[in-house]
Amino acid sequence: MAEKLTLNLKELSKRTEGLASGHRACAGCPFPAIIKMILGAADDPVVVANATGCMEVVTTIFPYTAWPVPWIHNAFENAAATISGVESAYKALLRKGKIPGNKKIKFIAFGGDGGTYDIGLQSLSGAIERGHNFLYVLYDNEGYMNTGIQRSSATPFAAHTTTSPAGKVIPGKTQHRKDLTEIVAAHNLPYAAQASPSHWNDLIRKVRKALSVEGPTFISIISPCVPGWGYPEHMSIELAKLAVETKFWPLYEVENGYYKINYKPRNPLPVIEFLKPQARFKHILNRPDLIEEIQRFVDERWERLLWLEQRKPEENK
Amino acid sequence: MKKKGWKELPEGAIIPAAPTSPEFKTGDWRIQKPVWNEDKCVHCLLCWLYCPDSAIKVKDGKVVAFDYEYCKGCGICEQVCPPKIRAIEMVKEEI
């Protein structure tokens, strides 16, 4: 268990500088800040595996890399399988005495929603089921943004993408997003959580908790996308915050099967406040029926979480 | 960085020394730039935390400089600066 789970920013600034400057992420992209929080949260040295995606492409354009830690990219679908192999190699070297027994290393895999919800789902499921000791971080920008904004199974209902174009025939994507955190939680792993960069304290605490637990852990983090969602580039953190305040992106954790909602907005905003600043939803602003459908979906999931949260561990009863 | 021929490139696209990205300057992407007012700053470090380009330099828990060689001018620092402090202002970049 880490000594304490929260860190203030002064402490964090002494532990990491985050990604190096000079990476080619779009101006205003929030995932470099997410990486900063995660690298700073870790007490031990980390090894990172990255699925194909925006993060992998913009940070490692050969011969440049922005990563201050050992980093490996393999393919789109197998970040979890790759980190399983790295973690197993570490365990084997420990067993043979080739790495000193007191040298602790943490293993983190990063994947976008394309590499996690869709393409890498089976390798993630396999790695969790095998019980490797790693943290999987999903940065969810709700689409295949790197290849030009195609829909993924994380894209919300009615969002315009190049493969779910809003027009006379369809009003953007015709399906709701799938709930990956719940799919991961169904593996009965020790820890799974949802976080947002706007709530940095909560995010850092979750990363530290996940890294202190033995076994596979998972954190899903919302990562607004400037070109994909269509909003002014200074608004990335504001949009992540609106997603939480409208209950579109609930901050919760599942620890050994027990649910806890970490933040309940006192005066939750209607979901339209989250949709309004985004160009991908501008075609539905005069379609109250579609907005109502998104609101219904958000409320239903929130009610379900409240219901799940009622089941408390024995010691807290 | 001088371009290498295929004989000098490492096998398997390994980059042996990291990070190397600071050799690539991203400051010329900028169309507006943040101007930091040191007197107003309370060093809450939110701008440092959220700067996507690691262009805000912190030493001993205090903001010390903005690095315009890498700042892409997104304006997140101005946005996250506490409303009562407002120590960062985005101004149009002059050429």
Automatic annotation (TrEMBL), chain B:
InterPro entries: 4Fe4S_Fe-S-bd (IPR017896), 4Fe4S_Fe_S_CS (IPR017900), PorD_KorD (IPR011898)
Keyword Ribosomal protein found: no
Every 4Fe-4S ferredoxin-type domain range: 32-61, 62-93
Xref: Gene3D superfamilies: 3.30.70.20
Keyword presence, 4Fe-4S: yes
A GO term for molecular function: metal ion binding
The entry's keywords: 4Fe-4S, Iron, Iron-sulfur, Metal-binding, Repeat
Name by which UniProt lists this protein: 4Fe-4S dicluster domain-containing protein
Organism of this sequence: candidate division WOR-3 bacterium
Species lineage: Bacteria, Bacteria division WOR-3
